[in-house]
């Protein structure tokens, strides 16, 4: 079970698990986002090696009903995209916090722009 | 902004963990658990839908049939008792105010079911048409939307479920004798219920109209009868992908005031040979030869074109021209590939024409195909 309090969040409903020792951030979308999207049927992720700038759209998450964009929470270089999710996007709905999408080697480690759990829960009106 | 309305089944939906969405001014269940699972359940077993947001009008009186011949696009007065008919409320311009289903239950007694979002427009059109019609004293129109609930059971085992529902009986005709697009009356715990073999999913199924006070008990009874047969509650998300696969138009997407029936493939719905009716003079005029027409598009892969996306005649940005736009699109849960309905120029509307969908900057090849995308095996 993921410790949700250990994660950081964005206003675009991504979660970020940052490992300070390796400088790598693991990124996914929150259960709130997955719930709002409905069944995820297609995921388009950036390839390993892609350079991300914080705030940029770097991928797409489509459900039967709508299209969500994946925003880069941090700047850095993609070191891995989760091909398991590309092959079976329903894993996002099954457990959004287990279904990581990309791992990013972060430029610097400035997490100040991210939300903590309490702020994210407040953002989603307590529904998260 | 008026407050969103809830149907009498609100507490049932909440207890089932539904997510809600604004649809036509009503807060309706969009899904309970998984819209894909709900979609598949309807194709394989059955789904239970609360469609109480739909608007209902009773049109009655000795001249009710003749009035509806004037007010609607189809020929209504000759409908046999117990039959249902898909029809259109046309504007004077020939554009579409709403699409409706008309049920003829008794001499001089018709039920018209309209879309929730068009309730006011249909009510206004009916009132206006009654005023301008010659024998308006022979027809009374009542909007009974606020008094009735509508529950749909859709799927291959729908009949077994309705037949097994406790408390539902007294049918004028057994369900086996009620054909597609027909209806019968019965009783449910002392209240009259209309059981219509109609729907919006492409599957066999029934829509049950009951007074609001009986809605919760009927929902519970249907669910209890159906659960052993695979019935699950299903929301508007599944309803939308189901109707799209079945090639059924959705008002506001495929149908609007700017579209005449022939453009949407609904020319057959207009009884051009009947006496005067609203929209006749406009439809008698020749439709512009370049007016876009509704087609189906299929594509490979998983990326679906969505409502509003452009349809192009080539993949080269420098030379390709926009030839249309998608009105509804999704990755088809049943077929596993993207499907869409789109209005395109007639010169690219032939079945088999290769076109491209602009999916957020990427040109996805798509092929014009006949509707529907999915047809149930009898």
CATH homologous superfamily caption of chain A: RNA polymerase II/Efflux pump adaptor protein, barrel-sandwich hybrid domain
The chain pair forming the largest interface, with residue counts per chain, is: A-B, 16 and 19 residues
Query: Globular, elongated, flat, extended or rod-shaped: what is the shape of chain A?
Result: globular
Number of strands of chain A: 9
| Total DSSP helices of chain A | 4
- The number of strands of chain B is 20
Question: Helices and strands of chain A: which structural class?
Answer: alpha+beta
**Low-confidence segments of chain A:** none
Largest sheet of chain A: 6 strands, antiparallel
Q: Would you identify the regions of chain B where 5 or more consecutive residues have pLDDT less than 50?
A: none
Structural class of chain B: alpha+beta
Could you state the oligomeric state of the chains shown? heterodimer
Q: Helix coverage percent of residues of chain A?
A: 10-25%
Radius of gyration of chain A: 13 Å
Principal-axes shape call of chain B: globular
Order of strands in the sheet with most strands of chain A: 1-2-3-9-8-5
